[in-house]
Amino acid sequence: MDDLKAKYLTQIADAADETSLEDIRIAAVGKKGEVALKMRELGKMTPEERQVAGPALNALKDEINSALAAKKAALADAALDERLRSEWLDVTLPTRTQRRGTIHPISQVTEEVTAIFAEMGFSVAEGPRIDTDWYNFDALNIPGHHPARAEMDTFYMHRAPGDNRPPHVLRTHTSPVQIRSMEATGAPTRIICPGGVYRADYDQTHTPMFHQVEGLAIDKDISMANLKWVLEEFVKSYFEVDGVDLRFRASHFPFTEPSAEVDIRCSWEGGTLKVGEGDDWLEILGSGMVHPKVLEAGGIDPNEWQGFAFGMGIDRIAMLKYGVPDLRAFFDSDLRWLRHYGFAALDVPTLHGGLSR
Questions:
Q1: 47-86 vs 2-14: helix crossing angle, rounded to 10
Q2: Helix (H, G, I), strand (E, B) or coil at 292
Q3: Sign of the alpha-carbon torsion through 73, 79, 84, 88
Q4: What dotted CATH number matches 107-341?
Q5: Is the pTM value of this prediction over 0.70?
Q6: Which of 148, 193, 290, 345 could cross-link 177 (Cys pair, CB 3.0–4.6 Å)?
Q7: pLDDT bracket for residue 292 (50, 70, 90)
Q8: Which has the closest alpha carbon to 141: 291, 252, 300?
Q9: What gap in Å lies between CA 183 and CA 133, rounded to an integer?
Q10: What is the average pLDDT across 230-259?
């Protein structure tokens, strides 16, 4: 055993790399190594001989394994030292001027919209993306037979048989945030609710997940005139034009009464959208006066308070402003597309500094 010990400790000390060290390990303490073969001979010994040879073999195996581990660590340290000597970086060199990362258009437009409405006194409210069907439908005066509540349009969360808890859905709009905000703060209030929403649809202008921003203003003397002014100021600021014509068309939404869809005057010369001029009209959002039942659901007395609400697709207005032809491209994670349509990370949109580049 002394000969084996001296033999392998010498080989371990002389090993030049981890490959050689592994060969030594297999020859010494591997399943067919010399120490393992010696241990098999214990069965042929007398009990007295085993009492002496057994502990000695175990001690030899432990000593060889310890030497192997120490040598492996030393080789790793030596390799690291060599890398540090050969692979170095001059930290005093100037940084690359090429822009690598960019802000996604959805994030950029969300910040633009937030900046515009913040100037008009609106704060940002947020809520859960998974909500009960009461917040998503019932509280918004959407009846049980409404098509939007069908499973072909809405993503319902799975419920086990016998589960009596209220159904949960991936929110189909950010309107549930308005109800939660009314419950939490009451009236008066002025908020916008940006965020992701989900509907079962997929084509060039629809995706299963998209983004909306909805606005809510409640006070004692708010009217459609206030709504019209807010939307005019928003459109002028967002599209960065001096004047704009809005057209309000009577419509129907369960959560507003009266309701109106809003179009902007525009032109499509050469495939480029120009807002505020031309003879074409483009629908951009829906709006109206908040339905009394919605105010009641939010814990606000409709006999004392009234307000307006509006909602628009962030993805849609981003496509209009920045000329993105296909909504699905927003979610493709194509770096070439993002470098083309993306924004510099430090270009924070402000009304006085300019919303876009």
A1: 10
A2: helix
A3: negative
A4: 3.30.930.10
A5: no
A6: 193
A7: very high
A8: 291
A9: 16
A10: 92
Share above pLDDT 90 across residues of the chain, in percent, rounded to a whole number: 42
Pairing of strands 306-313, 130-132: unpaired
Residue 189 and residue 216 in contact, taking contact as beta carbons nearer than 8 Å? yes
Q: Which residues contact 313 (CB under 8 A, 6 or more apart)?
A: 210, 211, 212
Q: Residues 213, 110: contact at Cβ < 8 Å?
A: yes
Report the distance separating Cα 27 and Cα 5, nearest Å: 13
Residue among 338, 95, 127, 142 nearest 253 (CA): 142
- Helix ranges restricted to H, the chain: 2-14, 18-29, 34-40, 47-86, 105-119, 133-136, 175-185, 224-239, 292-297, 314-322, 335-341
**So where are the chain's domains?**
2-86, 107-341
From the list 30, 33, 36, 22, the residue with the least C-alpha distance to 71 is 22
Residues pairing with 272 in the sheet: 269
Gap between the Cα atoms of 229 and 226, Å rounded: 5
| Angle CA 48–52–54, to nearest 5 | 105
DSSP conformational letter for 140: G
Written as one letter, the residue type at 297 is: A
- Rounded CA-CA distance 106/210 in Å is 10
First to last CA, the chain: 79
What phi, psi does 249 have (nearest 5°)? -110, 130
Q: What is the dihedral of CA 51, 54, 57, 58, to 10 degrees?
A: -110
Q: Which residues contact residue 92 at a Cβ distance below 8 angstroms, ignoring those fewer than 6 apart?
A: none
